[in-house]
Structure formats: C-alpha cells, structure tokens
Amino acid sequence: MLTKGISAYAGMGHPVELNRSYLRLARECGFTRLFTSLHIPEANTQTLLEEFQDLVSEAVSLGFQITADISPRAFTLLGADLGNLEPLRRLGLQALRLDFGFTPEEIARLTRESGLAIEINASTISEDILKSVMAAGADPARLQACHNYYPRPETGLSYELFAERSRTFRKYGILVLAFISSRRNPRGPIFAGLPTLEKHRHWEPLQAAKQLAASGLVEGILFGDPLAAPEELAEVGSVETSCIEIQVEAKPDLTENERNILFAPRHTNRLDPGEHVIRSQEARPSCQGEILAHPPEPRPRGSITLDNAKYLRYMGELQGVMKDLSADTRVNVVAKVIPEEMFLLDLIKPGQAFRFKEKTGKREKA
Q1: Same domain for 176 and 103
Q2: Is 251 found in the same domain as 237?
Q3: CATH number of the domain within which 286 lies
Q4: Does residue 365 form part of some domain?
C-alpha cells in the first residue's frame, strides 16, 4: 500500500503551534509518515533540540511513523551513540536515516541492534555499497531506503537514474520512498522546492505524486517542504496505486449516458489493448441506451472517445487515444486529457485500472 508523508523541521523559525496544527491537518488528509532532520545547516542550534523534541512528541501522539535524518554529530546532541540508542527510542522515533558518516558495518550493526528501522540514501548508494551493507550482516527487515531531496535547481535526479536506483533496492526487497515539492510553500533559503526528481520541481505536487505512485517504484511519497498548503495535502492524500486517476476536460452537452460511461468509478485497460488506444473493458456493457453521433473531429493524442450507434455492436466502446488519429463519423470525442497529465496515458498498461475526473476551475501557478 502506498503511504504518504510530510516533513517538518525544528529550528527553522516556525512557531511550535504552527508545526502542531500542520501535523494535525496532514493526519486528517491521510498522511502517516513524518520526516524530520537534525542536521539542517540553516537551523537555529539554540532552539533545535527543544523544538525537535516537541515536534516528535506531537507526531507520536498523532500516530505518525517518524524518521529522523541523523549524523554522528546529532547522536551526540541527543546524548546517544552507536552503543546507546535508548535516548532515540525514548523520543518515539521509528526510523533513523543515515545520510553520511556511517560505514557499511555500522549500518548493518544498527539494523541488528537498534530496534529501529534504518533508512539509507537511495539516491547515492550504489548496488556495490548495498552489497557491502548486506554482507556485513544487515537485517533486511530493518532496512529501508529514501531518496534525497534537492534544494538547488538543476541538481535533482533524472527519472532514469531515480528508476535505476529504486529498482536496485526493490530487487533486495527494500522499501523505497521519494520526495515531492510544495509549490505553495517551498522551504528557504533557496525557496525552489525540495523534490527528488528535477522534473518535479515545477510540477504541481498532485501530478508529481501521481507519477511516482503509477511508476510502481516507491512505497511512500513525502513532501520535502514543510507546511505544504491544505489543498496540496488534500490532493496528494487522495493519490493511490490501484487505480490511475486522470483529469480531463469533458465536452459540453454530453448525455447522461455518455457521462456515466466516461466518469464510471473504474475502467480497466483490456489485456489486449490496441496499438494506438487504451480500451476500457467495462464501458460497452455499461452503455444504457443509444449513443448518437457527434460531428466528427480529429482525435489527437489524449482524446477520450466513445463509439456511437454507427459502430453497431461497438457502441459504448471507450478509448484513450495514444497516437494522433483522424476523424471518424462512428466515433465521438467526449473529453481530452489535460496537458499536465498526458504522461499518465503511458503508465496505463494492459490490465491497469484507471478512471477519469473532470477538471474544474484553474489554479494559478506559484
């Protein structure tokens, strides 16, 4: 099951109550993970520890699974070391993310002795290093991986490298997580978002989350930026892996029958879809009454079509067009995928469930 998470940071100048209310809102939107850090260069070291403890305490009370990004220096700050992790366990942490400063042997030891999940950097650890960790006796049940986030523009991962590294960890049965940005509230001092993938830096978080979810390469998605906007939390909280939801702009004046087919709760791409189209296996059987022909029009990629009565027994056939097709008097164009979600068409494989959601209103870009 896909899990969703947020990030919140101590020592960043946010009022304590603001962090608390943000945690409560995220929990209401279905978020169950919290990522936090004890080594952010911009953090105020005078307030860091007290705020960190307050943040974790609130998150524990709300039932979050908490991962803390930690370094050897942060161990000292909390009064812990590799031989004494009780101060960390008392805080209520479930996982430690070891970003740097730990050897494969130390990582393996922590998986065996800490009683906590140990999270390693999925963006920087190669398969050779992972093999070294496993050879040192790591407990795979206590090991998970989370990609980096990248504050500076132009430094985020390509999708290809993200996929390659993620597949490596999944091959070993290790859970993988990745970050997306908030477009409404990017974290300072760069204020350019905290995504894993560079291409996601300027995407709305909904589309970034949909791509990660549909990729099948992660088990968890996290906002890297703190204080994502309420609408961002609500949208990302609704993303799932079992059914790809695609936003479309529907044609005006569709009949009730056409709208019922188009916006059915669930379609499934046939196991034998066409070369140029996605085909719903549920649409034709659900057709109630005759579908009259619309004026014919070209069917560019992203068109959603319904076969009309002129196509005889194919009436009610719903297709998503993958390649530009010409007009056909037997086929009605009933909707078009919004440009921002056109990429989702390529992720609908044979047997994949999908549904359409009508796009309503336009939100200004950040």
Answers
A1: yes
A2: no
A3: 2.40.100.10
A4: no
Together in a domain, 82 and 200: yes
Q: How many domains does the chain have?
A: 2
Bridge-partner residues for 176, per DSSP? 145
Structural domain range at position 265: 245-358
For residues 32 and 62, the answer to whether their CB atoms sit within 8 Å is no
- For residue 317, what are the CA distances in angstroms to 38, 107, 283, 338? 55, 55, 6, 21
CATH number of domain containing 201: 3.20.20.70
Decide the pairing of beta strands 277-279 and 318-321.
Answer: antiparallel
DSSP 272-328: S--SSEEEBSSHHHH--S--PPPPP--B-TTEEEEE-GGGGGGTT-EEEESS-B---
How far apart CA 261 and CA 306 sit, in angstroms, is 9
| pLDDT (tens place) for every residue of the chain, 366 residues total | 899 999 999 888 888 899 999 999 999 999 999 999 876 666 666 677 888 889 999 999 999 999 999 877 777 777 888 788 888 888 889 999 987 778 999 999 999 999 999 999 999 999 999 999 999 999 999 999 999 999 999 999 999 999 999 999 999 999 999 999 999 999 989 999 999 999 999 999 999 999 999 999 999 999 999 999 999 999 999 999 999 999 999 999 999 999 999 999 999 999 999 999 999 999 999 999 999 999 999 999 999 999 999 999 999 999 999 999 999 999 999 999 999 999 999 999 999 999 999 997 655 443
